[in-house]
Design brief:
The chain contains 14 helices and 22 strands. By secondary structure, it is of the alpha+beta class. The longest helix has 23 residues.
Length: 449
């Protein structure tokens, strides 16, 4: 039987404003307005686990009003939804979104054909097995490892009795999964792809309760020591560019994706100017000693969420006048290129992948890969980090587009990139640093000399 129960050790305090302040260990306080005493009545009725239907009889508020109150208590974690048998707890559902699916009257008969929702994920969470919803983050904790067999048995349409018989407590688990929308009637899979839904729900507040940030320093990393192989880049004359550049309106109107490049490659001074315009460090600012939440950061021409600037610019150079072919990393603190790899094999792979993505129109002269240091943003933004990195990458790509247009160069963002090729070319662990966006640049057709 599915029952409601109070979550953990809770302390309920009445405030002068007719609110209830609910506190407990390892949880944020919850304040609920309770002018008519309905919240207190529900919590008092749940001094022991109680089925939802029985609670309706004990607290006569009307089914609609009581159900809305129970939902609110569920999504704030004040109470939980669970099931047990004669051997103890079977499973517990915990909710993370006020939009969570909660169907208290859902009933699954043993003769009914059922199937696991395509948006259900069986995974490990804090040392426990949970079935989690990609839609709203609801997580059903399995109190017995053998119950994972029941979940696995639902991958194909099956009669509920057959799945329930795979482990003790299986029938109760099925009813709980149905109540939170993780078990459905068999049918064709429609709607958005599960991985797209999963990414989206963890990219927006309100859809799930986002995890807190990962502990770690937020300060901008210090400048890396120079290497003998570093290539110093010429610094453009910004004062002269302010007078000679086209207007922003003209650049915005004339910007186009260029897939066909000139026969004469762009030059090292042009590449240097492009990087200087969009990616260099302009200024380092220290943390504010009066604000314990502040951290040291840098100012750059292109903005970044929280001034994290987790994106590094890696250049795969096939043809550039004044620069040997190879893979380089731009060092924004001193406007220089660090040699990463001059082996032709990874260079050809990266350039060829971009060439194919550009419909084989023209072989790229230079490919810029934006590589994200994932831990940098995760320390501050938690589950929001990856979505912010993609936005940062979009801003960086547009900055390259506009700078290239102003300079009379061609640029085209690459719709897909090969992360494995990038990892092999750079020697970086893709779990720590991985390419998230690419753009090619080169001379324009007709600019040959």
């Amino acid at each position: 039987m599915i029952t409601l129960r109070r979550g953990g050790e809770l302390t309920v305090t009445t405030t002068p404003s007719a609110d209830l302040l609910i506190t407990g260990p390892d949880r944020d306080p919850v304040a609920l307005h309770d002018a008519d005493g309905s919240v207190a009545a529900v919590l008092a009725a749940l001094h022991r686990p109680t089925p939802w239907q029985h609670l309706r009889e004990q607290v006569p508020l009307g089914a609609g009003r009581l159900d809305a109150l129970v939902r609110r208590l569920l999504v704030t974690g004040v109470i939980t939804l669970g099931c047990a048998d004669e051997h103890g707890d079977v499973a517990t559902a915990r909710f993370r979104s006020r939009l969570a699916v909660v169907r208290p009257d859902a009933d699954t008969t043993l003769e009914q054909a059922i199937q696991l929702s395509p948006y259900a994920l069986l995974r490990r969470l804090d040392g426990r097995a949970v079935v989690e919803s990609a839609h709203d983050g609801t997580a059903v904790e399995l109190h017995r490892p053998e119950l994972a067999a029941v979940v696995a048995g639902l991958c194909a349409p099956t009669v509920a009795a057959a799945a329930a018989g795979l482990a003790p407590g299986g029938e109760r688990l099925l009813r709980l999964l149905a109540a939170v929308g993780l078990v459905t009637a068999p049918g064709p899979e429609t709607g958005r792809a599960p991985h797209a839904v999963w990414t989206h729900t963890r990219s927006r507040n309100g859809l799930v309760e986002l995890r807190t940030a990962t502990p770690g320093a937020l300060d901008e990393p210090p400048a890396e020591p120079a290497a003998e192989t570093d290539i110093a880049l010429p610094v453009p004359d910004l004062a002269a560019l302010r007078h000679s550049d086209p207007t922003l309106a003209e650049v915005m109107e004339t910007r186009r994706s260029v897939r066909r490049f000139g026969g004469t490659p762009l030059t090292l001074p042009q590449l240097s100017e492009l990087l200087h315009r969009v990616a260099r460090i302009q200024q380092r600012l220290p943390a504010d000693p009066a604000d314990d939440r502040s951290y040291s950061f840098t100012l750059r021409p292109t903005p970044s969420a929280g001034a994290m600037h987790e994106l590094d610019y890696y250049l795969t150079v096939r043809a550039c006048q004044g620069l040997a072919p190879g893979v380089y990393r731009y060092r924004p603190d001193r406007h220089a290129l660090a040699v990463v790899n001059r082996d032709t094999v990874p260079l050809v792979r990266l350039i060829n992948a971009a060439y194919l993505a550009l419909n084989r129109v023209s072989v790229p002269q230079v490919l810029i890969s934006l590589a994200a240091r994932g831990d940098r943003t995760t320390r501050k933004y938690g589950d929001l980090a990856y979505s912010l990195t993609l936005r940062n990458a979009g801003v960086a790509l547009q900055s390259v587009y506009l700078a290239a247009t102003a300079m009379g160069l061609g640029a085209c963002a690459v719709g897909s990139g090969d992360a494995a090729d990038f990892a092999e070319a750079t020697g970086l662990d893709p779990a720590e640093v991985s390419a998230v966006a690419e753009i090619v640049i080169g001379s324009l057709p007709g600019e040959d000399v």
